[in-house]
Design brief:
CATH topology of the largest domain: Triger factor/SurA peptide-binding fold
CATH superfamily of the largest domain: Porin chaperone SurA, peptide-binding domain
Structural class: alpha+beta
Order of helices and strands: HEEHHHHHHHEHHEHEEHE
Strand content: 15-25%
Radius of gyration: 29 Å
Shape: elongated
Length: about 325
């Protein structure tokens, strides 16, 4: 994956995580478990004594996602084999370093957490047989699958631990606010029309009238029992998130000019809700924009920190490339 940073420790329960794990199984996770010591021809490198096998190195170099990252980093359509091998080795080395840091920090994944992550992954398949077929297609056996998922969870945790002190300073927030105040949207306002009646049958009748083109404001003045009847049901501009959850849900997918109903508010209250318009709310001050500024800036700062940390670890670590054994004549 092109992105290095990952969210906090979690069981892979979402479609997004599932798609990420699909890529992970064919790229990053390969080789996160040290290979048994064997013939030196099967080992291409060691990171602080932990081996990287030729098979995992070849899989990483041949993977389409490695090609995609090389294209992005080098700005060329067809990186040569040497470029792909260099990137594959870099990714494998950095994964070893992250797992070694997890071990130093005594970060662990419990068996229950691992079981839950595997269970969540299996739910994305129609049957256990389909899941087993997919695992085989990835070239994994059961122990390798569990180790892959465990390592993913460990790297999530160590990255979170490494970046937990990273923050956006007041100066950075102020500078960003000054440069982006015209697009710092912190919410939304909506203008509604609402008719309130006491029975569903009456609400159904009013919905039919609206569909036939009877003006909403006229129906509200004549039939609504709500406090907005005199104004034709007009709420004026209101903060969307300040509305009751029932109304937020009712207008969430409406376009201006559309109407929804009946919406049951209580046993004796049914609403017809029309959306007149919606508009963004821009931050008026840096304090109002604080949460949005942090949402925009923090991931990039965390990524920069991780990259710098990895570079420092590479410099102070013992990383050995193992030359292939020459065949004897």
């Amino acid at each position: 994956m092109a992105q290095e940073s990952r969210p906090e420790k979690r069981a892979c329960s979402s479609v997004t995580c599932f798609c990420f794990l699909l890529a992970l199984l064919s790229t990053d996770a390969w080789g996160q478990t040290p290979e048994p010591q064997g013939s030196t021809s099967e080992i291409v490198a060691r990171v602080n004594g932990e081996a990287i096998s030729r098979s995992e190195f070849e899989r990483m170099a041949a993977n389409p996602l490695t090609l995609q990252q090389a294209q992005q980093e080098l700005g060329i359509k067809s990186p040569d084999r040497k470029d792909l091998e260099a990137l594959a080795m870099k990714r494998l080395v950095r994964l070893r370093l992250l797992l070694q840091e997890a071990a130093r920090r005594k970060i662990t994944v419990t068996q229950d957490e691992l079981d839950q992550a595997i269970t969540d992954l299996r739910r994305h398949f129609d049957s256990l047989k389909d899941f087993g077929t997919w695992v085989k297609e990835q070239g994994l056996n059961d122990p390798e699958l569990f180790q892959t998922v465990r390592n993913d969870m460990l790297t999530d945790q160590v990255k979170t631990a490494l970046t937990e002190q990273v923050s956006v300073s007041e100066k950075e927030a102020q500078q960003y606010f000054e440069a982006h105040r015209d697009d710092l949207i912190i919410g939304a306002e909506v203008r509604l029309r609402i008719i309130a009646v006491s029975t569903q049958s009456e609400a159904d009748e009013l919905m039919d009238s609206v569909r036939k083109g009877v003006p909403f404001d006229r129906l509200a003045r004549q039939r609504s029992k709500g406090r907005l009847a005199a104004s034709g049901g007009d709420t004026g501009w209101v903060n969307l998130h300040a509305l009751p959850a029932l109304l937020q849900e009712a207008v969430a997918s409406l376009n201006p000019g559309e109407v929804r109903g009946p919406v049951k508010k209580a046993e004796d209250q049914f609403l017809i809700v029309g959306l007149q318009d919606r508009r963004p709310v821009l931050a008026k001050s840096v304090d109002e924009a604080q949460a949005e500024i942090h949402r925009r800036l923090l991931p990039g700062k965390q990524q920069e920190f991780l990259q710098a940390w990895l570079e420092q670890e590479e410099e102070k670590s013992t990383i050995e490339r193992v030359p292939p054994v020459q065949a004897t004549k």
